[in-house]
Write a structure and sequence with these properties.
17% strand; two-stranded antiparallel sheet; globular; 3 domains; ten-stranded mixed sheet; alpha/beta; Rossmann fold; 39% helix
């Protein structure tokens, strides 16, 4: 029965098992996506030093799932680099991007990689500190930051006691993992395909191992000096969002000035934090004191994509009219009541290691004074001084210069990595194809039945088929901002 099932999957997925190689330690599996589709794949792993700067460093696993190429002439593995930092490439392949993973097999084995400290490669315990923020009290911004700093200090001690070397969780170490991955597959070169932090890692690789790269596809690019975003550029994003809203008559009437709305609500809540009663599953409630800071933190997470930004604006509009049910629903769904401040080693260490430099830190501090979301878009900004020794330095943050053929996909309504910042991040690349996607947000790699999103995917395919430089603009549908 198993042989019959495997044969059926081979037919459905188009894999010619006669030319599908296996590598040391791999196990054949049937990979099942959340949409019900499946593919033959191979689970594999290899070991790398946690900290290559230490001779006695412990070894840690790097796990992956490999989808075999459907073309027998394909020779260069394509490595998917997830965002975050902290996202799992293997889990990503199970969701909306699964069809694109399958399509990319035309050009080589596609590797869903769990980077060090993520997904199946994460052997480090999560740290739950002893610090619990009393959400029923009014707490200043300064105290809020201090509590998080103390929690991280506590976690650093905990990880050390558990044998975790946080100094090994840097983008430079992950680049060396990519070298080890290439060698594991006995390949002369690899191609990289990444989004957000995955693009950050790809750019670092282009800086130091360009000779080992064939092609690079990056979306929502985060430059090597852009881990912490400039508040002024976040404000400029809101101007672009307003311009998009103004194209819809009803939406423009509902949101004639989103910046003024946001400022007005922040001032209102700053003057008097709002005491909310949040329902619990046992029919009881708990008190949540809504600060201006909470709204800025919520918004920092919601501006990534237009559909989420729409939700954010309706929350502000409701609060402006003293309608609190929508924000209560959000807090009920997403807030972790009475739980300690916690951290995962990899994400926080990676952000602190990439850092920002003294000059940029001063710029952020100054811009945050008037910025709509202040300095909450990347909270690592407030934690830099807890572990300054991990910072990779200004040399790391210099942008790469490379001739590797690269495709950059940029959304005009990306609220996390901005158009100007992305252009700066890739300005040293001499073989660049830049595609601007009007009305798209941060999460660009998606599957949709719409012809327009198919055009985005076709652009990726055309780039992989040829090394020609193609610059163009694609427009995708804008959600109706007047609808809840």
């Amino acid at each position: 029965m198993k042989i019959i099932l495997v044969s059926i999957f081979v037919l459905l997925t188009g894999i010619n098992m006669a030319f599908s190689k296996t590598y040391k330690g791999e196990k054949e599996i049937i990979f099942e996506a959340k949409n019900g589709q499946s593919s033959i794949a191979f689970e594999g792993s290899f070991m790398v030093p946690e900290n290559r700067n230490k001779k006695d460093s412990r070894m840690i696993p790097i796990n992956y799932v490999r989808f075999p190429a459907t073309d027998k002439n394909a020779s260069v593995p394509i490595v998917y680099l997830s965002g975050g930092p902290g996202g799992s490439g293997i889990q990503t392949a199970k969701y909306r991007r699964f069809p694109l993973f399958m399509k990319m097999r035309e050009f080589g084995d596609v590797i869903a990689l769990d980077q060090r400290g993520t997904g199946a490669s994460d052997i480090n315990p999560r740290c739950n500190s002893n610090i619990v923020i009393d959400q029923s009290k009014i707490i200043s911004d300064e105290k809020h930051v201090e509590l998080h700093q103390n929690a991280l200090k506590e976690c650093l001690v905990y990880w050390e006691s558990e044998g975790v070397d946080v100094m090994g969780y840097t983008t430079n170490e992950s680049v060396k993992d990519l070298v080890a991955l290439r060698k594991h597959f006995n390949a002369d070169k690899i191609s990289l395909w990444g989004i957000s932090y995955g693009s950050h890692l790809a750019l670092a690789a282009m800086k130091s191992i360009s000779d080992q790269l064939d092609k690079v596809i990056i979306a929502s690019a985060e430059g090597l000096s852009q881990t912490v975003k400039l508040p002024a550029r976040t404000d400029a994003y809101f101007d672009r969002l307003q311009s998009a809203i103004n194209t819809q008559e009803k939406s423009k009437a509902m949101f004639p000035d989103i910046k003024a709305l946001i400022k007005r609500v922040h001032a209102k809540v700053d003057q008097q934090p709002i005491e909310l009663q949040i329902p619990m599953s046992d029919d009881e409630t708990y008190t949540f004191m809504l600060h201006r800071r909470n709204l800025q933190e919520f918004s920092s997470g919601l501006i990534s994509d237009p559909i989420r930004a729409k939700m954010m604006l309706h929350l502000y509009l409701a609060i402006d009219y003293n309608m609190l049910e929508p924000i209560i629903d959000v807090i009920k769904k997403y807030n972790r009541h009475n739980t300690p401040i916690s951290y995962r080693a990899m994400p926080i260490a990676m952000d602190l290691a990439s850092g920002m430099g003294t000059e940029k830190r001063q710029m952020i501090e100054e811009q945050a004074k008037s910025g709509l979301l202040k300095d909450y878009l990347n909270f690592s900004y407030h934690l830099t001084d807890v572990l300054p020794v991990i910072d990779l330095g200004d040399e790391f943050r210099k942008k790469p210069k490379s001739a590797v053929p690269t495709l950059l996909l940029t959304g005009t309504l990306d609220g996390r990595t901005y158009i100007k910042s992305q252009q700066e991040a890739v300005s040293g690349l001499s073989h660049l194809s830049a595609v601007l996607i009007n009305n798209a947000g941060h999460n660009l790699f998606m599957k949709s039945d719409s012809e327009i999103w198919t055009e985005v995917e076709q652009t990726i395919v055309e780039f992989m088929q040829s090394k020609k430089t193609v610059n163009k603009t694609i427009t995708v549908p804008l959600p109706d901002f007047s609808e809840m």
